[in-house]
Amino acid sequence: MENKDIFKLKGSKKIIVVTNRHLVKENFLNAIEKCVLYGADAVMLREKDLQYEELMEVGEQTKNITDNYGVPLIINGNFRASLELETYGFHTGFERFKSMNRSEKNSLCIGVSVHSSREAVEAEKLGADYVMAGNVFETSCKIGLKGRGINFIDDIANKIFIPVIAIGGIGRENIESVLGTKASGAAIMSYAMNL
Known about the structure:
This protein has about 200 residues and is α/β, with parallel strands linked by helices. It has one domain (about 10-195): Alpha-Beta Barrel (TIM Barrel), CATH 3.20.20. The protein has eight helices and eight strands. An eight-stranded parallel β-barrel has the order 1-2-3-4-5-6-7-8, surrounded by five helices. The longest helix has 18 residues, at about 50-70. The protein is globular. The two termini are about 15 Å apart. The mean pLDDT is about 95.
């Protein structure tokens, strides 16, 4: 199986590519375009170390790619940038989401990172459009944090009605087991950034 074939495994599920330009060996924008060409259902721009102006520049370049292919762009962590760029969605952590005003949520699709079924249930009650639950497996992004396993995903999916996207250490060797759960899809970072 070639690297790009991971996207062919998704069936009716979704694969969201989460960016991290520090993991890319060649050109960051080329990596994003490859993922979109191979079949990514959405791109989440997660470049938390960038200042607003830098994020806007990278965001505009990324949005040119995603718009060109009709793929939704989600901004992680910067609501203002998401509004300014008129992206499809905004993604944030559970605590930040709890402090958002309902009017702030606007017409954007809002996603929330959760680490327990309790957080997932509360996020749904507060108006989240989807949750991203993890980490499913051990990941180099969260060194020392044990994976919660695929049963964790089904546990959350059984308690809420909005989509659950699995994240954390998902790659070619385990994505089929993740897509076999009640998750609506999977988010991939390290694997995607090295295609």
